[in-house]
Amino acid sequence: MNAPAHAPRLDLDALLDDRGTRIIVCCGSGGVGKTTTAAAFALRAAERGRDVVVLTIDPARRLAQSLGLTELDNTPRPVEGIDTGAGGRLHAMMLDMKRTFDDIVVEHADSGRAQQILDNPFYQSLSASFAGTQEYMAMEKLGQLYDKGEWDLIVVDTPPSRSALDFLDAPNRLGSFLDGKFIRVLTAPAKVGGFGGAFKLLAGGVGLVTGALGKLLGSGLLADVQAFVNALDTMFGGFRERAEATYRLLQAKGTSFVVVAAPEPDALREASYFARRLAEEHMPLAGLVLNRVHPQLTDLTPERSLSAAEQLDENPGPQQALASGLLRLHAERVELNRRESKLADRFAAIHPGISLLRLPALAEDVHDLAGLRLVTASADGQVA
What are the residue boundaries of the ArsA/GET3 Anion-transporting ATPase-like domain, all occurrences included (predicted)? Predict the structure, then answer.
């Protein structure tokens, strides 16, 4: 019988200390602790001398709480209370999707056309709720932060999407929407001499389509969509170029992806899928972070623990009952550790060579800097 596969250990400090590492992207399925992991990595890097900004896309605002900030917004804010002895500093921000979209409009359009777009009702709805906009804007903001050059490390907490792949797919999805047939039908009138002349010239084709859409959507909404698209038409190339530039940035040598997963079958299946996708897209994967694991604290086996507990039960008393309960709890903990280890070994067998870092489950939720430091304490070898 083959021995179980064991993944090499991810050296977190080597990753954080490498000045060639400019971007770390924490990704994974929802509910696995990406936000906390991203904040903990950013804090550790800053306290080891890096100039760090961490970007979260978490609407629960847990990052702000854990970093001791009352609020986060689209502007990086300094985090107070960190150890600056090594010369590092830490800023944090939370993505404001609409404001980021507004910034793109202002940057890529002249002032008159930019205001026309910003005031358009369809744009206001699109920028706040269009499927994929949040993921696209996360990548857009990453590109903006990188281009500013104010920090030597950017840590990104990816959106809490149903699929971890949305972060990579969003630029193409939004670009496809803007370049799609529906949009091109709406822009066609403007490209042949204005709305009035266009509807006359295209009465047999586009006119019928827009007439049908007008009945379906309502003439007011259709007019808003047409006005938005015509104003935005000169920006199509800008969206494409920005998306492609950020995509190349994610493939670049200075970027490292970290897949975060809980030691549970569903989360590790998602992590496995994401690892394959990153390989297909030629994006650098630093390793897997297995979050909230339950390490075995002693060498006492569950069999011996249960045997000792049964012996204690034969002589009932307060102290014996307490000791018996602790032994049974230990036995359960060891069994849990074994199950988690088997899952990790299965992942290692499927993805040989991918490094692994186990982060322990903490006794309580992280709500301050001290808690964030505990998250990465295992990087010092304190937890096996």
Answer: 21-296
